[in-house]
Amino acid sequence: MSVQPSATAAPSTGGPYNVASLYVGDLNSEVTEAMLFEKFSAVGPVLSIRVCRDVQSRRSLGYAYVNFQNSSDAQTALLNMNFDDMKGRPMRIMWSQRDPSLRRSGKNNVFIKNLDKSIDNRALYDIFHSFGPILSCKVAEDDSGTSRGYGFVHFESEDSAKDAIERVDGMLLNDRKVYVGPFIPRKERMKNRDTTTFTNIYVKNFDPGMSDDELRELFEAYGTITSCKIMRKDDGTSRGFGFCAFQDSDAADAAVKRLNETEQTGKKLYVARAQKRAERDHELQKIFHQKKAERQRNYQGVNLYIKNLDEEMTDEDLKTAFMGYGSISSAKVMTDDKGVSKGFGFVCFASPEDATKAVTEMNNRMIGRKPLYVALAQRKDERKAQLAQQMMTRGVIQPPMRMPPGQQPMPVFPPMYMQLPPGAVAGSRPFIPSLRPQRAAGNWNRPGPPFLMGGTPGQPFMPHGTMPMHRAQRARNPGRTSNQQQRSGQRGNRGTPSYAQAHPTSTSTAQSTEGIGIDTEKLARSTPQEQKQLLGERLFPKVREIDQFNSGKITGMLLEIDNSEILHMLESKESLRAKVEEAMEVLKAHQANGVADTAVKTTK
User: Fold this and answer.
1) What are the residues whose beta carbons fall under 8 Å from the beta carbon of 371, sequence distance 6 or more?
2) Which pLDDT score is estimated for 394?
3) Residue 14 main-chain phi, psi, to 5 deg
4) For residue 383, how many other CB atoms are within 10 A of its CB?
5) SS3 188
6) Residue 130 DSSP symbol
7) Could you point out which of 18, 215, 229, 437 has its C-alpha 20 to 30 Å from the C-alpha of 456?
8) Which residues pair with 230 in a beta bridge?
9) DSSP label at residue 271
């Protein structure tokens, strides 16, 4: 068949594609932009060419886009260069469709199956192009480039697709009767499939020494069998399953009902309707999600997460510590491969009321040398969402503000745990780094005792040269500063109980916590602000070992967590690394959203 110009006429400008842009597919991985430019520039002026590549490996994905200056040149290239050979593979050219909804809808798309192996993209195009303009035409191939026996033809109009189905369906192509029909998306096929009518059955769990003839004898009592096959390995040994196809669906249904779970040579057979892999995976995923949802419902409000456990604590010890609050279904201390405790575990109660009572009374209770952290168990995705919500609520991560056109938005940073410059005294006016990256980066890595910027967790970052209102007032009235501070300190001491008074500790906690060098007695006597100071001094170097570049921001984020959790992180490298990774994911998501919003504003 000769190629007719009407078959590839340029689509109207109102369509969902660019009339001067072409999609070039089925490219060899060695084809570059220069090779494509050399070929397509012979037709007319080319504005741009882009070979799509993998983000990480930069390897070609096998397709490219060619943008011409004139739509007439693009149409000429489509007519004359389609299926031309380049680096040993024929190019497949079609109009570029920027709107994916047209491709995914399946509208005007025709499905052809039972094709001969010799029919390729060019031959399929030659067969169908006479029915109307074709947007795309492809024969499905395996990894070796061999035809899978089916293909797709996407027409521009619905009338062309209907005409092709009516005239080609049932025809002989290379002595094979082909099926031509409208393309049905996989979701609709899965939804509308008929599971009651089938002829092919799947059999497994039979004797490894069974032959194809013995399997046939087992099933032929229920009807006429067209084929029976046991799947085997390369060495000829059985893979433990096979297929048996009946001529009649009623016979196949009877064989499944009567032979499934019957004993043969000491084993119970499994006999069921044969399924395609996609259908089987869909059902397995459905069963998995159902069981997961059922587990979540069963353990909702009754499963507790406990950490800060002593290394010597066992499952029985954990159960004994919590059994006074109600009936316990299970108690487990998590251990590593060597059986060493990871410092946390789970206790599951029979009722939500008992679990709530245990959380209220056991959280922060001293068991051994550490205060326990007790809370309802959460999934990982729930913890990430809660952490992100906490950061947004407390002002740690704020969404970028919308600024008038032409103005740059103020940068918003998470709280940073910074280091004092040499010679600075802790408690004096905090050192605020310049917003210029080179100076900030240098100040973060200077040696010296670390402190929390602003003195209070969650206090927003202030640009260089600015100060809070109360500091500005002290700067205008320097004579009153010392007296005011002295009076306010006296009032605070009289009216506000110290943390040690509000949280008395036993004498056993006065010892330094092993491995982190913090005097728990001193920590208990300190105010909440001083506690964050002490914990931050130990936490910052450990975070910097994991992530050197974002250690200041991550430390500021981690200091928002409860102190008992921070103590556990200081003792457990695994727990600290997990929290740092969670904080990094939240930080990256925030930065990505900020970049996207800035890009949108710039385009506007």
Assistant:
1) 308, 364, 365, 564, 567
2) 59
3) -80, -5
4) 15
5) helix
6) G
7) 437
8) 242
9) E
Backbone angles phi, psi at 420, to 5 degrees: -70, 145
**Nearest by Cα to 570 from 581, 559, 583, 557:** 559
Residue 23 is encoded by which pair of tokens?
A: 């999609």
Q: Of 37-41, 56-60, 412-416, 553-557, which one has max mean pLDDT? A: 37-41
- DSSP state, 512? B
What is the spatial distance between Cα 284 and Cα 282, in angstroms, rounded to a whole number? 6
CA distance 518 to 522: 8
Place of tokens 């004994």: 320
pLDDT at 507 over 50: no
How many angstroms separate the first and last alpha carbons of the chain? 51
Report pTM.
0.41
Contact assessment for residue 203 and residue 270, using Cβ atoms and an 8 Å cutoff = yes
469-491 pLDDT per residue, tens: 344 444 444 444 444 444 444 44
The predicted model gives 454-478 an average pLDDT of 40
pLDDT in tens, 199-254: 899 999 988 888 889 889 889 889 999 999 999 998 888 998 999 999 888 899 99
* d(C-alpha 179, C-alpha 149), whole Å: 11
- For tokens 């009235």, the residue is 477
Half-sphere exposure of 46 (CA within 13 A, CB side): 19
Tokens of 37: 């430019």
DSSP 221-255: GGS-EEEEEEEE-TTS-EEEEEEEEESSHHHHHHH
- Spatial strand order of the sheet with 373-376 comes to 328-335, 341-349, 303-307, 373-376
The dihedral formed by the CA atoms of 166, 167, 171 and 173, expressed in degrees to the nearest 10: -120
Beta strands in 364-480 (DSSP E): 366-367, 370-371, 373-376, 417-419, 450-452
Mean pLDDT of the chain: 75
CB-CB contact of 528 with 499 (8 Å): yes
Encoded amino acid at 481, one letter: T
The closest alpha carbon to 455, from 359, 528, 405, 388, belongs to 528
| Gyration radius (Cα) of the chain, Å | 35
Q: Nearest 5°: phi and psi at 297? A: -65, -40
Instruction: Report the alpha-carbon distance of residue 47 to residue 68 in Å, rounded.
Output: 5
